[in-house]
């Protein structure tokens, strides 16, 4: 059963190849997968978290420069006291929807990875991207499901450090990255302070002049490589399938040749034959048994 074996081996190779490909694409290469990666990392790195204690989440070496911290709060504590941490000021009277007993808040400073994950068309980011993300929290999962903040008092304030000198010469705008991939703009309320009404990711931008937008081409390039990888994979699988079909054809022809030789040795030439290269193929004769018309 040579052909059978062959098919099995090829199938295994194809499976291994495509699963490693899927593995390769299942990384934190885009915003959403970064979000779920950070959530998973927080859950894995922090054992037995205490409520009200802020923890730094350690990140893999290729995310050096990004800073992520997480805290679990009782909803009532957030509602009554709010929470100040680093560049973020969460005032009192913030609730969650759906309503939760305890909330996990992830503070993210994307640092020099800001332009890797985020870009604002026709604008230049002059500050890092900051994220303040809300999750439910339980005993089984420290950082559980994404939830929404609802704000009944003052808005959340984010203080931005300038990362780009150009932000000093122009008045930057607050930019909010929405869930559907769009960007919304708002004026700052104080120098380099943005007031926001939701959890999410924010930064400061200035309109970019005719300068080529390098951030844009960067993400474009990454999209292009993804397409290249996909195209290559599909091409590869197609080639393997083609190879299998060819192999099956060759086997079939060989089988027929053997049958033919057996018949030949038995002295019964039933079909005419013709040759392709070294392969002898049977050719059904058009005048094998003439039907006899009866009157
Ligand atoms: C970091 O490395 C992991 C594999 O260890 C990879 O999946 C991920 O895409 C890399 N991230 C960046 C930003 O290079
Ligand atoms: C967390 O990281 C920040 C910045 O790297 C550092 O200032 C702070 O001391 C760290 N906090 C803890 C609890 O390790
Ligand atoms: C960010 O900076 C760190 C060092 O501070 C470096 O190791 C890392 O490669 C940088 N990442 C990017 C995307 O530039
Ligand atoms: C947070 O900071 C604001 C002013 O920056 C202050 O009024 C408020 O009391 C602080 N809240 C907490 C919980 O520390
Ligand atoms: C960016 O600017 C170009 C030319 O000024 C314009 O055609 C394009 O629509 C703009 N893009 C966005 C997303 O506003
Ligand atoms: C949070 O709000 C957004 C938009 O307002 C909505 O699409 C989403 O379903 C909400 N999420 C939860 C968990 O309620
Ligand atoms: C910001 O404020 C200026 C006036 O100071 C106004 O013209 C502009 O429309 C505002 N921009 C946004 C995005 O609210």
TrEMBL record:
InterPro entries from the UniProt entry: DUF1191
Record keywords: Membrane, Signal, Transmembrane, Transmembrane helix
Signal peptide: 1-24
Gene Ontology cellular component terms for the protein in this record: membrane
Pfam family, one: DUF1191
Keyword Lipoprotein: no
Membrane found in the keyword field: yes
TM regions (residue ranges): 227-251
Identification of the protein by name: Uncharacterized protein
Native source species: Vigna mungo (Black gram)
